[in-house]
Amino acid sequence: MIINAIHIPVISVITPCYNGSAYLADCIESVIAQTFGDWEMLIVDDCSTDDSARIIKEYALRDSRIKYFRTEKPSGSPSIPRNIGIEQSRGNYIAFLDCDDIWLPNKLELQINFIREHSYPLIYSFYEKMNWKGICNNRIVRTRDTTTYNNLLKSNSIPILTSLVDRKIIGTTRFKQIPQEDYYFWLVLLKKGYTAYNLKKITALYRESKNSRSANKIAMFRGHWNVIRNQLHTPILFAYYYMITYFIFGLVKYFK
After folding, report:
1. DSSP 64
2. CATH code that applies to domain 11-211
3. What gap in Å lies between CA 35 and CA 14, rounded to an integer?
4. Is 62 helix (H, G, I), strand (E, B) or coil?
5. In angstroms, rounded to a whole number, what is the distance separating the alpha carbons of residues 214 and 196?
6. How far apart are CA 155 and CA 180, in angstroms?
7. What is the pLDDT along the chain (256 residues), one digit of tens a residue?
């Protein structure tokens, strides 16, 4: 008797979605267009009230690598949808892509070669900003070459849309439902002693939305403090130091 083994994809792409119908198709198409095709895309709908669910289901019918999930109730942040994606994923590596962002076609191919060649636990890369209409103006964001726990405390140098992580280092770590949930997630991983490495190539386009949480700089400042001081319990003097460096890095990034 011949038993067909269930194929395990190399990469699981996790996409949280809430009312993303305006940009969702572009996001999904950018994954379908990848030159590396051994992936699954888990799109977790946070109880959208627009056409997001219909769009996801239509793509899932056309491409078996795309899978639709839905939260039990609106969560109000990407944390729970991403956690659902992690729980349901099967890939050896995990990537994250929000529903309004876009990958360049060779993103996964470049990164899977890079992470495998060096046996890195976590990698990331440069990205380019585009406005909410999808227009780019050569605003490229370049972050540090390598990231450890200590220098990550100064500023978040791991853009989640460019990340690729070996699922073995994730273990039971999950996103917490707090502001800057991705920053907290990376800090918890790197606190285990891992180092993240930069491919140093542009692999994605980040959409600046009118309603983006990152537009509220005061809220981001408070969120950063909450992560390093209240969540990770960084000693107070060190926390002040890291907040100063965060402010400086933020000014530099703002003018890019």
Report:
1. T
2. 3.90.550.10
3. 18
4. helix
5. 23
6. 11
7. 444 568 899 999 999 999 999 999 999 999 999 999 999 999 999 999 999 999 999 999 999 999 999 999 999 999 999 999 999 999 999 999 999 999 999 999 999 999 999 999 999 999 999 998 889 989 999 999 999 999 999 999 999 999 999 999 999 999 999 999 999 999 999 999 999 999 999 999 999 976 554 557 788 889 999 999 999 999 999 999 999 998 887 766 655 5
Length of the chain: 256
User: SS3 for 201?
Assistant: strand
Domain boundaries, the chain: 11-211
What DSSP line would sit under 155-182, residue for residue?
A: S----GGG-EEEHHHHTT----SSTTHH
Give the Cα separation of 107 and 253 in Å (integer): 23
168: buried, middle or exposed (CB in 10 Å: 19+, 13-18, 0-12)?
exposed
